[in-house]
């Protein structure tokens, strides 16, 4: 494909936007077809009665990855995504009588005060944990997260096997953290973050303890206007580079002939192209957009159904007439029985005492709520639609709503906040499935278990069909906004590599 020919990207989400920007900037003509009316996929936005809410991700980690996307196109990131570093990063509350409260900073002095208050074993263990995870982080970034795996020899060679051993992935995140830090509160404060990518710390590989390490070493940030600003500005940059976005255009099929992509179909029309980048959730795409059996390869409908999926989320977006003065921007309220909470999420039983994440973006950006008011984003990690042993109906949502209200009311200064709620929107697992085609309503895609990570995870290049590429949270390197942005980069590189090989063949 010559550079002036057209590549079609399926869905304007941040993985697809990452790939599209890089390809358009490299001289390709790229068109995007997006199901929704605005860009971003789950990085969506709700505006209601003067309140603004991000629908999905809210917390910025690894800001250099966000900025690099704009720098790669010769732009100043500050002109697109101005960021503020949050200090403290967040508050953690453990339910109990009394409730236990910790303010978590990225300042080492403040962190050591917390660790040392738990005794010498915990303070030494905390520092040892940081040192150990930083070593694994460097290996992961250099050898795994920033490269894709086309063939078995890309991983099964002496160098890569040595690097894989350095990751020490065979223990769970919870067990690894406990081996360093005896105190249970500290363990849980620095291991629950695996839920950011939809896996329990009881099951997620210990490598994912790099998530809290990244927070502690590089900070947590906020983009003015919320996370949807990132999606809006990526779309803006893409269009400035000459790219074209078709909104309200849901792709119905990826067309394949004789082992090659020939185009996409939507609204009864076929769009011809030699290359397709699919940013739809990989399991959904393989079951619903790809009908050619050879292209599916091992990812038959039965194989897709047998894979392991992340948890889902139930999110309440509440506009309140309250400044929430005693809380910070990010607040995590941990269940009184976290083990039972995690087990219920992943075995599908009703959650008696859910953990809750409370995000108040108006604390840092007052424009996201009317004057004197606050925008509250209240998230409960819950079971996906297939895992759930109960129906996701109005009664279930009402039951969890009461639990969320009770939990938030227990926080400082929030005793009577429920009476100040002026508007409400709710996203359940059904909504994530309906709006974003999240397979099974699984918010984070495939679980990043050991056997669904790295070379075992769906790769950017489809090896069973020429011209077809994938990006997104269910593909390598995995979930989480910066990692999905990286998946877009890998996807673009794989496509460009094939084009170069075609041109020289």
**Class per helix and strand makeup:** alpha/beta
Q: How many β-strands, per DSSP?
A: 19
Q: What is the level-2 CATH architecture name of the domain at 6-83 and 225-307 and 445-504?
A: 3-Layer(bba) Sandwich
**Separate helix tally:** 16
Sequence stretches where pLDDT stays below 50 over 5 or more residues: none
What's the CATH class label of the domain at 6-83 and 225-307 and 445-504?
Answer: Alpha Beta
Query: Could you tell me the mean pLDDT?
Result: 94
What is the fourth-level CATH superfamily of the domain at 6-83 and 225-307 and 445-504?
FAD/NAD(P)-binding domain
Amount of beta strand: 15-25%
Largest sheet: 7 strands, mixed
Cα-to-Cα separation, first versus last residue: 12 Å
What fraction, in percent, of the residue positions are helical?
A: 25-40%
CATH fold label of the domain at 6-83 and 225-307 and 445-504:
FAD/NAD(P)-binding domain
Rg value: 22 Å
Shape: globular
